[in-house]
Design brief:
Two copies of one chain form a homodimer. With about 220 residues, chain A is an alpha/beta fold. Chain A is built from eight helices and seven strands. The first copy, chain A, has helices spanning about 1-25, 40-50, 70-75, 95-105, 145-150, 150-155, 175-185, 200-215; strands at about 30-35, 60-65, 80-85, 110-115, 130-140, 160, 190. In chain A, helix 1 runs parallel beside helix 4 (about 95-105). The N and C termini of chain A lie far apart (about 40 Å). The interface between A and B is large, with 39 and 39 residues.
Chain lengths: ~220, ~220
């Protein structure tokens, strides 16, 4: 089993590098968005698209076990989206992204959001060729998540802490979550947002623009 | 890959049947508790143990990628617990439960809670030999989770909807979540609880006692 897992990961890593080359050639910013189910990835993307679609070229790849609900939501907010249904699979992989890239006609200097399957475990192991990995947690999930799911936090560049509007009603200490996450990954950046109230979203948009500039 | 997955699942199913026989022989009620990360499984178990430990024999197997935090919390609430760290693994399997059963000295007519890794995808495929599977969702996760993660809802017997105290602050329609879940599994039972306020917890305790009686 261990040998086989390594083979799968090694094959995935190879395909991920091909995607990375593709993104590099086209100066496309590809972001792998990961989280638990229900942390608010799709809602963050809807708001982001509505706010930025007039000035930026935005594209979305949606991963879910079943349904095209998320791609439908994204298309309504104004960006082309493609849905990948993984069936019983628990993560997107490099080859799925490669196939999706062929279908989405992505121009140079675009931003490609890849919304992974809601799962803090398996997607951590599968490089998609993205430049940055963004892990979204919500304040309703408990502040010890970084300790319990360390691989995801270790491999991410930015942690968005969502649903800050609910902070008064839950036992979530932002400082504790950040401390635990930094134990695992001292370079992790944080942005706190509430999609519902819009708080913090400007900081996220600025982060995106900064990433585009350094491509 | 498909063939290999079937081999792994077939081997797991064999070991799960062995556990099922063990539970049957000892009239032990074994419950496989599954959910997203942060839905409140551990908090539900803490409250359950504090409420029932005087009158019932309660044992817990805790699954997490890393840390013994949950087992520590459970032991403090008064029940023997054993922690299984799955490392990079995304689910508990039949063999892990078999090994844990050897260490926990579980008497006849006990309740064994198995808290699976927080993951709505992979644990759905791995039978542990449990009599009942309990899926916990929280009202902060979005009411479309049953459609997006259908295998978990298809294979569960009871759905606990947790954090009802947060209903006034989130866009979660209980009826919608139930409707979607019943489309996938018409026999699924529901109990709504708030661990924080205690609302609905008595119904859960009654459900547990009823399961014990029909063993």
């Amino acid at each position: 089993m261990v040998k086989l897992n390594l083979d799968i990961l090694s094959e995935n890593n190879r395909l991920a590098e091909r995607n990375r080359g593709w993104f590099e050639a086209k100066h496309v910013l590809a972001l792998n968005m990961v989280s638990s189910p229900g942390s608010g990835k799709t809602s963050i993307l809807e708001s982001t698209i509505r706010s930025m679609v007039e000035t930026q070229k935005l594209f979305v790849i949606e991963g879910d076990q079943q349904t095209t609900r998320d791609a439908d939501r994204i298309e309504k907010s104004g960006a082309p989206a493609i849905q990948i249904n993984t069936g019983s699979g628990c993560h997107l992989d490099g080859n799925m992204i490669h196939l999706a890239l062929k279908k989405l006609e992505i121009p140079e200097h675009a931003i490609l959001f890849i919304e992974n399957v809601g799962n803090l475990v398996c997607p951590a192991m599968f490089d998609l060729g993205e430049q940055k990995r963004v892990v979204v947690i919500s304040v309703t999930e408990g502040d010890d998540k970084p300790l319990k799911y360390p691989y995801m936090f270790e491999t991410s560049h930015l942690c968005i802490i969502n649903k800050t509007d609910l902070l008064p009603y839950v036992d979530f200490k932002v400082e504790t979550a950040m401390k635990y996450a930094r134990q695992i990954n001292p370079n992790l950046e944080f942005i706190m947002v509430s999609v519902k109230t819009g708080e913090g979203m400007d900081e996220w948009y600025e982060w995106l623009k900064k990433q585009l500039q350094v491509l």
